[in-house]
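User: Can you help me understand a structure? I only have the sequence.
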Amino acid sequence: MSPTLEPGEFVLYDSNGSVTVGTIVVARHPHQPIEIVKRVAAVDPIGLVELRSDNDAVGTDSRAFGRIDAEQIAGTVTISLDWP
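Assistant: Let's start by predicting it. Here is the structure, written out as tokens:
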């Protein structure tokens, strides 16, 4: 998510936050047992969400794994922390 978020930054998220275009979210990766932080690029009426990295050159996003079900989103990022 660089340049918005740098490697090593921690994020806090709201599990009840509204998922809209432009929002940064924490989501479960559809093919790996990890959570990812991405920006919402589109939300369609049937509940599929397209995620994008802020850095197209190095990020893995919906262009690689497709749209995800809205239920895979853990929450919307509210703050980032530069932790020691």
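Now, to help you interpret it: The chain has a mean pLDDT of 92. Helices lie at 62-65. Let me know which part you'd like to focus on.
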